[in-house]
Amino acid sequence: MKKVGYSLKKSGGFRCGWALLAALALLAVLALAACSSSSSTPAAPADVPITPSPTPGAGTSGDPYPGETDPAAINDDNAQHLLMSLFELSPIVTNVSHMLMPDSAAEAKTVEAGIEMGDESGQVEVSDVSFDDATAVFEATATFTDFQAAVDEPVFVSGSLEVRAGYRTSGAGDWLVSTFNDLVAQDSSGTPSFTLNGEVLTATVAGGFVVTMNVDVEDNNSGKVYRLEGAEATVVDNATAGTSTITVAEGSKYYDYDAGYIYLSTPQPLVISWALDHPIGGQIKAEEEGGGYVLLTATDDTATPPYHFTVIGYGVTGFTDIHEGSW
């Protein structure tokens, strides 16, 4: 297979934890913002709008959700799991969504000019490649076969990924829509192993990016499917402070296979320390359909007695106590 002026991006990690969340803004810079420094990048017309956010639910697998579809009842046993659900799933989704995007419109034109392209390993085939000069929009489809998606870990991807990317030299910023079609991501042992179906929109903002997720994530070992529906998070880096700030929009919906659905948000944006590898401030809110909610408040390491967060319930009958814990 001929490789034409293009390299697929391999991320630096696949860990489902705070270190990866803190690095997501860097991924956005690598995958989306590089074109702004290229003098050869054509400017898109000012009247070409950014692609709209995916319609909630439209980016899921298309099949009825196989898990619990009723509203979740938060209780002492499931509160922490539900609070952390978005932050456990979003690294899995975001880590593989940027693998197929040229760094600039100029590079996208080079790719579009090639008859075929792919990774040197032969484990990636890219087809249906196009670039529209008038709108600076790039489109392509990749089929992966045991492609190693992480540089420093044995994480392998198989399945189909479609992308539609728009480039800007000013204005709204670059954007990327990634569509997963039975895309499997797993380590060499097959544990963990996840199958992704759905759609992710990423758009650059000052210092970071906004990601909107409509995705089904199946745990291939348990058979359970977890759904993110209209889940929107903004990630901004502060290199001077060594922190990332994550803001989750109201109405971000999460379906848990066993518990049902809840709404997630951050009343106070989470502040994640790169050095400590966990939040040192901010709040996460998990809300029931009826309005009751639990609120996790992150603290720093100087708390006495030493703990990293507290969880308090408000109007939740099944949550009876104040919980304290560590990351």
Structure overview:
Strand 5 (193-205) and strand 6 (208-219) form a beta hairpin. The chain has a 16-stranded antiparallel β-sheet that branches. The longest helix is centred in the first third of the chain and has 19 residues, at 79-97. With 327 residues, it is mostly beta strands. Helices cover 13% and strands 40% of the residues. Helix 1 (18-33) runs parallel beside helix 2 (79-97). It has a domain at 18-38 and 54-240.
Ordered list of secondary-structure elements with their pairings:
Blueprint: H1 18-33, H2 79-97, H3 105-113, E1 124-132, E2 137-148, E3 155-166, E4 175-187, E5 193-205, E6 208-219, E7 225-238, E8 243-248, E9 252-256, E10 260-265, E11 270-273, E12 278-281, E13 283-287, E14 293-298, E15 309-314, E16 323-325
Antiparallel strand pairs: 1-2, 2-3, 3-4, 4-5, 5-6, 6-7, 7-8, 7-9, 8-11, 9-10, 10-13, 11-12, 13-14, 14-15, 15-16
Helix pairs in contact: 1-2
